[in-house]
């Protein structure tokens, strides 16, 4: 049996809770780049599930996003 999300990379981010919907919408606009899942809405913890081929692209989006809103990468 495979571990969960064996075919993707997981990044855990901490963001302001008011920005979660914005981030979800942003990644939905980049169709297929990453799927966003809210892990703990009270703490602003979200998970990005990334296809391995798109890790560099997601890093670029997260970097640009961090210049606009507070984003902390908790794990990659």
Under CATH, the topology is which? Alpha-Beta Plaits
Q: What integer value in Å does the Rg equal? A: 12 Å
Strand order of the largest sheet: 2-3-1-4
Strand content: 25-35%
* Structural class by helix and strand composition: alpha+beta
Task: Output the CATH class name.
Answer: Alpha Beta
How many strand segments?
4
Helix share bin: 25-40%
Give the CA-CA distance, first to last residue. 23 Å
What is the CATH architecture term?
2-Layer Sandwich
Elements, N to C (H/E): EHEEHE
What would you call the shape? globular
Domain count: 1
Quaternary status: single chain
Mean pLDDT: 92
Largest sheet, if any?
4 strands, antiparallel
Q: In DSSP terms, counting alpha (H) and pi (I) runs of 4 or more, how many helices?
A: 2
Organism: Nitrospina watsonii
Protein name: DUF4911 domain-containing protein
InterPro entries: DUF4911
